[in-house]
Please model this.
Amino acid sequence: MMEILEYVANGLMLLGGFFAFSGSLGILRMPDFYSRLHPAGTADTLGQLLVFSGLALKIIVISLADEAAIDGLSIGKLIAISLLLFVTTPASTHAISRAAHLRGVEPWTGDPEREGTDE
Amino acid sequence: MRTILLFLVLLGFWLLLSGQFDKAFLVGSGIVSCLLAVYCCHRLKLMNEIYQPVESLPRFLFYLPWLIWQIILASLDVTLRSWGTASAIQPRFVKVPVKIRHPLAQTLLANSITLTPGTVTVDVEEDHYLVHALTDDAEKGVLDGSMEKRVAVMVPASKEAGPDQSSEVTP
Model:
């Protein structure tokens, strides 16, 4: 039972790392400024959610293995960080995209006639 | 009511970060700091339904799982497209008509749209949002208004069209 829980915790963290990596890859591969915001979002939302769930589960597993009381404070702190990211991420994304929009950055649409207008 | 709740939340946050319940000085200074913060909030007139949406909190707990589920679905989609070819994305700007006027509901909706990968709220106007969508599906999802309905249910005051709710409340 304990081993299974530990594997689940490790798996959650690995999966979170995969989404964070995919986010970075997407930022590099996307064609223009606005499109790059979207893959960045996956790393900030699903990625952090999975990593923090994995960490919380890991804390529970370690506490159970040591037959100690579950470290609720650390889990509470993890939840607090996760919530903080959920509140601050859209605010910063909105701020940066709005700044670009007001500045007149044109979106890339895949239309060859407008190619390069986003540069 | 709001005062007591704010005090309890602040105290809980202090205890969470300090983690020491047996040292009288630390707990005592925590209580003093929280009282000071609550007093400042009173002076700054932050004790209202926009800064402390106590009434919406129970419904928000039902909204959160749905939002996380939407985020998971959208994240999987955007991740697949990050690995895919250029034809996998069709980025464009969309004007999304928005009926709700309540500032809190508008903020929640704009944040929810941005949190969901594939759509980013670029600009908030009086009766519509300017949203950048990565794909056709993301555009359809944001235009069908299901998220707005859920936010409207969550913030009861948003249904009553207030006199001048659309203007930002500046503290």
